[in-house]
Amino acid sequence: MSVFKVCRADLCNATRWQSIPIFQLSSPLILPSITQFIPATAQDLQLCLNDPIISTAVISGYSNLIPLLQDFHSIAMFLEFANLKHTSVLQDVAYLDHVYYAEHTNLMLMAQYRTISSSFFPVDINSEETFILPLLFQALMLYIYTNIRLTPIEASIRSILVDRIQVTVAKLPFAVLDVLFETFPHEVFWIMFLAGSSSVENTHRRYFIGHLKWMCKSLALMYWEEIKEKLRHFLWLHKHFLQRCKDLWTEISLYIPDDRLWNTSG
């Protein structure tokens, strides 16, 4: 069995059980830039990171989250836009290494958050805003399996990760969720759409639709093109997954009163 098969099995096991990977990262490798294989026409589609998420990550001691988000964004764009007809491209860019290091880093950040009490955060940070961190860590795990590993829709790991996001959101008092949405509107909207679009079970799907209805209204989003632009304001969504987002929007729009101009055009 190859080393990468063993490492991937280790990451999958850690994801399923929310544990620390057995195989620890050695000194970081200098990997080839993955963006050099992305066509110039797509390189303008850069990751947009807003000041609140940057400052919250840095002040809370999770500055590694910022380059990690950029890594995930670049990997997803490479997967969609690079010419992958020749498998040698994957080897040239060390694609498996990029995915492995990004996923391993996120798992370690999740473990760090679970073991460090919020009481250790600086006193000048709004403790309610730090709840975006575990929510985002969970969403990134789902992002890996839906937009990078492209696992089948019916894969059990996807259902497990969707359920964890629902549980994380459900534990938040409404006042805290309001603070998160007010402070991180792009990120929270993206997380909810990611989870809702990944949902297969009706209970999960209805739960996220319920939240997305009022979020769409709050953001004054009325057309699919607006939804798509808002979603791609954050981490890049693979074209196949984006179709699932459009299907979810079709369901959400059914709950909007007829006197509003909400539709699924575009």
Structure keywords:
single chain, 266 residues, mainly alpha, 0% strand, globular, disordered C terminus
**Approximately how much beta-strand content do the residues carry?**
under 5%
Classification by helices and strands = mainly alpha
Q: List segments where confidence is low: pLDDT < 50 over at least 5 consecutive residues.
A: 258-266
Question: How much is the radius of gyration in Å?
Answer: 18 Å
Question: What is the count of structural domains?
Answer: 1
Shape descriptor? globular
Please provide the count of β strands.
Answer: 0
Order of helices and strands: HHHHHHHHHHHH
Describe the structure in your own words:
The chain is mainly α and 266 residues long. The chain has one domain. It is 61% helix and 0% strand. The protein has helices spanning 3-17, 51-59, 65-81, 88-92, 95-115, 132-148, 156-170, 174-183, 185-198, 202-218, 224-231, 239-253. Helix 3 runs antiparallel to helix 5 and helix 9 (185-198) runs antiparallel to helix 10 (202-218). The longest helix has 21 residues, at 95-115.
